[in-house]
Amino acid sequence: MEATETYEFVKSLVRKAELDLDTDTLVNTFKELNWQVSGEFNYMRMDVQKVESDGSRVRLYYKSYDPSGPFQNLPDVSKIQVQLIQDNTVIDELNVRFDG
User: Fold this and answer.
1) I need a surface site. Which of 22, 34, 39, 78 has the fewest CB within 10 A?
2) In whole angstroms, how far apart are CA 31 and each of 4, 5, 28, 47, 92?
3) What are 48-98's pLDDT values in tens digits?
4) Which residues have C-beta within 8 Å of that of residue 79, sequence separation ≥ 6?
5) Where are the chain's structural domains?
6) E strand or H helix at 36, and its extent?
């Protein structure tokens, strides 16, 4: 399945973002790739997917938000979900959350 290789590649990008506590490289990489975009695509939110020739697909959803309330200065929270989907069934999934 072609999507498996793509899925592993995307997982490695997500793990690097988690390790570096930085999603800028992740977002910049997806700006260069020819993936289908659903909704917003920016440094705060991104929903993209790549459909392979066999119909399987890889979907990445990313969201970053500021949890700070009044008189607080907390780091942004980043949530990233990567899914490997075949026949509309999620075969594998990675969920990552980090502050940074």
Assistant:
1) 34
2) 21, 19, 5, 12, 24
3) 999 999 999 999 999 999 988 888 898 899 999 999 999 999 999 999 999
4) 62, 63, 64, 95, 96, 97
5) 2-99
6) strand 36-41
